[in-house]
Amino acid sequence: MKPTRVLIAHNRVADDADLSTLDVLDQVVLVQEGLEELGVPSEVVAVDDHRVWEVVRPRPNTVVFNLVEAPPGSPQLQSAAAAVLELLGVPFTGSRAGTMWLTTDKLATRAVLASSGLPVAPGGRLWSDDTRILDTVPSPWIIKPGWEDASIGLDGSPVCFTREQAVARARDLERRFVGQPLVLEHFLPGREFNVAVLANGADAQVLPVAEMAFIDFPPDVPALISYEGKWLVGSFADEHTQRRFPTDEEDGDLLTLVRALARRAWKVCDLSGYARVDMRLDEQGTPRILEVNANPCLSAEAGYVIAASNAGLTPGMLVDRILQAAMRVESQADEAVAV
Question: What H or E segment, with its residue span, contains residue 18?
Fold first, then answer.
């Protein structure tokens, strides 16, 4: 079953916004292309300050494609649009508000994953004036703001090798990201994987696993997806970070484990529609989950869409799977109310 109409809702962005904010407009284009392929009429609406109720009203057989992101500087509001849509009783794509809240909070996500037996990097919360955690987590450490995504806060020198570096980094982040908790983790030295997961009826499909390869990084430059590597086109990190798709022939056992962990994270975090699970290998070559992203970027150049393409999915097929998941969730909610 297809909706008769889709409302593509996104946060309004300023013309001079940075690339990490502007990319939502590229996502709108990809979703529009997918809907055109499906022959489903759509309308695009820009939402100001998460005031979703001003532009969205319940309409028969209409689904909201939720691309509303938190305004810059307020990542804690990432789940707000989903919460409003739930209150309005409007079917919408992606995960529910509770899941969006959970996965926005890196410390909460770590706790939920670890309590369910899923492997995470050693770490926890860090304060610049209370560094006792450094005595229990082996160095080197990576320090990042607890609510940001898109590698925001992973600029400069996010990996610290000494206590002095860690304290200086923490003080800098506390100044720049006021009110956010800081996450400190042991910096895992191994390979890094981005695992796209897509709803498939009542199940979930793990799309081709992408590895982020760091080519010719000098010894004094930690190999990770930094803000520069993600957004500063032409930078060293940008030009020397490449996406590849390892095959079962070369990494069969490892990929089997990575896929299994992604599927378990999908279930544990109660994800819906589409999501991405990021992992790195530790010193023993064991994958550990770094983050869970409940609303990964859907622009044509984004890793999620490229993974979908490698799985043989056109934009229309991808969008259709996400819409079907939204309608399935809405149907289940209606049945629960009826009972």
Answer: none
| Per-residue pLDDT tens over the stretch 131-160 | 999 999 999 999 999 999 989 999 988 999
| Phi, psi values for residue 193, rounded to 5° | -125, 140
Q: How many angstroms separate the CA atoms of 59 and 69, rounded?
A: 23
**Residue 75 and residue 147 in contact, taking contact as beta carbons nearer than 8 Å:** yes
| Cα–Cα dist 148/95, whole Å | 18
> Are 107 and 195 found together in one domain?
yes
Print the domain residue range for 209.
103-119+189-310
Give the 3-state DSSP-derived string for 185-208, with helices as H, strands as E and coil as C: EECCCCCEEEEEEEEECCEEEECC
3-state secondary structure of 1: coil
**What φ, ψ does residue 121 adopt, rounded to 5°?**
-70, 145
Structure-token pair, residue 331: 């149907």
Statement to judge: residues 194 and 147 lie in one domain: no
Please state, as a whole number, how many other Cβ atoms lie within 10 Å of the Cβ of residue 162: 12
pTM given for the model: 0.94
The sign of the dihedral angle between the CA atoms of 213, 145, 302, 246 is: positive
Q: Which of 142, 163, 186 is the last residue of a domain?
A: 186
Tell me, yes or no, whether 136 and 53 share the same domain.
Answer: no
Q: Residue holding tokens 């895992």?
A: 188
Quick: pLDDT tens for 13-55: 988 888 888 999 999 999 999 999 999 999 999 998 878 999 9
Rg (CA), the chain: 20
Residue type, 61: N
Q: Which long-range contacts (CB under 8 A, 24 or more apart) does 32-38 make?
A: 32/8, 33/315, 33/316, 34/314, 34/315, 34/316, 34/317, 34/318, 34/319, 34/320, 35/6, 35/8, 35/316, 35/319, 36/316, 37/314, 37/315, 37/316, 37/319, 38/2, 38/316, 38/319, 38/320
Count up the domains in the chain and report the number.
3
Which tokens in the block code for residue 2?
């297809």
Tokens 């500087």 belong to residue: 73
The DSSP bridge partners found for residue 7 are: 43, 64
